[in-house]
Q: What sequence folds into this?
DNA sequence: TTCATTTCTTATCCTACATCAATGCATCTG
DNA sequence: CAGATGCATTGATGTAGGATAAGAAATGAA
């Protein structure tokens, strides 16, 4: 599973094998069971998690005990709480495993070392930040204006490959609606003969 | 008004006067009237706008012709569409002036030049990106879970100094509610003897 | 000033979505 | 395999906030 991270990483940053090897000493990989919590609200986020196999999610829990899913991360995605990590402050987020998953733990030492030896890593990281902003802004925009149905349709086109793996109540949580409403939306779409797959 | 940008910029990046001077050739400042549109949806965003005096906003217009305000920027703030600018793609956003305002137009040449000569600029820019992400994520979270009233209360504490300058219907648009609802929320708060100022 | 335009409020009715509750299925687990 | 647990669906009912309309108040222009 470290291999798949290496492949991923080199595809993004053009580091040589030697360069990559020279900074991997703090990288750890681990298999975790479905349900394992990797980051708790209140903790300071010390790692980014690269998913080599499986599925993770990040979410908040509000004063009423309700979960709000912020993000999903399947194979070849990295998930973390960048704010907490960068500003060294307690995280708002939980991160846990939706499926049994194989993870590479990326710590700050690795990030810093990579940034030091590679321009392309820095560029890549910058691009990732911009992508993240773009994605969040689009989501804000949808939450401001779109109906439950529109948001769901947007979700299944963007995350087509994940829609079957993620339980519906989590999709509902991501969309900001209840599972019951999502069920009704889907029923309505089916009635209108909509075929997602 | 270039001066106020210089002050702002040096407070964030520790460039010397000479360094700053050496890259200012493409900077332009301009006064624009209330209502002036600085960026149109569909355009590629070529500048960031530094506000030395006045107030700008960015917003989208959806299929039904409804505005959704994404951001406000008053004195000593920079506003732009980073995604459009960075990825060189058509912007989703409009940016226009809520008040008569004095603006410094910052183009990519300036940014690139600054990044080239100053580590602290790069760091500062990176911090700004992380702040942006943190702010957007918080907003997503509020939109997913909080009531109109909670969102309004959050707004007036965070943007206390702006609440009196921004028309209520724009605040409503930022919060994702109608002006009528905001009016009712305010009435309710007043009844419960809530004192914002 | 005065007239016009924009913004804010209020009132009535309406709808999208939430809440609550019950049932049917899967799937785990001992 | 029987029971427990979790998830999706469905139905009945409630509600926050939207739509519409109209008047009041503020702002602005002439």
A:
């Amino acid at each position: 599973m470290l291999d798949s991270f290496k492949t991923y990483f080199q595809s993004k940053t053009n580091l040589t094998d030697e360069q990559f090897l020279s900074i991997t000493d703090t990288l750890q990989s681990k298999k975790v069971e479905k349900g394992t919590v990797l980051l708790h609200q209140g903790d300071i986020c010390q790692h980014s998690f690269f998913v080599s196999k499986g599925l993770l999610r990040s979410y908040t829990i509000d004063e009423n005990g309700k979960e709000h899913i912020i993000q999903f991360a399947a194979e070849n995605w990295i998930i973390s709480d960048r704010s907490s990590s960068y500003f060294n402050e307690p995280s708002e987020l939980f991160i846990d495993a939706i499926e049994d998953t194989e993870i590479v733990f990326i710590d700050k030492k690795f990030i810093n070392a990579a940034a030091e030896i590679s321009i392309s890593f820095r560029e890549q990281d910058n691009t990732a930040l911009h992508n993240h902003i773009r994605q969040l802004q689009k989501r804000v925009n949808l939450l401001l204006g779109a109906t439950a149905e529109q948001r769901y349709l947007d979700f299944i086109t963007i995350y087509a490959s994940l829609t079957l793996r993620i339980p519906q109540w989590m999709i509902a949580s991501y969309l900001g609606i209840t599972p019951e409403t999502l069920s009704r939306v889907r029923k309505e779409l089916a009635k209108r003969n909509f075929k997602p797959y």
